[in-house]
Description:
It is a single chain. It is built from 8 helices and 17 strands. The termini are far apart. By secondary structure, the protein is α/β, with parallel strands linked by helices.
Amino acid sequence: MVAMILAGGQGTRLGKLTRETAKPAVPFGGKYRIIDFALSNCANSGINKVGVVTQYQPLELNEHIGNGESWGLTGRDGGVTILQPYSSADGEKWFKRTAHAIYQNIAYIDRYNPEYVLVLSGDHIYKMDYSHMLEFHIAHNASLTVGVIPVPMEEAPRFGIMNTDQTNRIIEFEEKPKEPKSNLASMGIYIFNWQVLRKYLVEDQAKQREMEDFGKNVIPTYLENGENCFAYAFDGYWKDVGTIESLWEANMEFLDPNHTLNIRDEDWRIYSKNPVSPPQFLTESSNVTDSMIVDGCYVA
């Protein structure tokens, strides 16, 4: 399985935080960046072929990821590859939306000839073993498996909602419905059978050129054509930090030593590229409580 992390979003709802850098490169929890969670999940899940699709303000993100050494994602048979737009004889290769970004990088995926492709968003805070999701995908003979998480019903209109039957088969998809029928929100995590997805994307590009987004185009097309689509329910901590408020909430929740994310878990570490900084210094008069203080801080 090859992982493709979509990390090219502008993140306009984060305001000044993303004016000069991509959303996945925004700092989080003192010593991390948001994309560290997706990269660490891949490393811990045993996935060593990872493409990171960048577009908007990629300099800081590219510098942070480097060759993937900080996550152990290096090696002759895989590693991390930064995938940016490029020009060719066919014209500019800008990525329009999520599915279009995968189409534009078919050549990269084909290099590994994978049976499955894992598509991830680079801007969520969570820990997840993708190998369990792949086992579910194979066991259900699925063509597409979507990671879902229950959300409060009042928040459901913010998400793409999967309506399922008793076997977890997706029978209907609603994109940000005003009156949702369920609370199973898409996490933006997909496992596709690569040859099936490739066929859909290539054929569409030669005809309609409409399949640009997974939520708006690809999933509805799969359902219309009777493909086996299943929802994989995730029961851990997951946070979409797409707004200032949600990013602040996630950072505040991160302070709790009993946080369900369990950042101190030795068996599932969150790795990052950390700059060499001097130790933190607190003056005698600094009255600091309930805080994370990382290297380089001087608190007076």
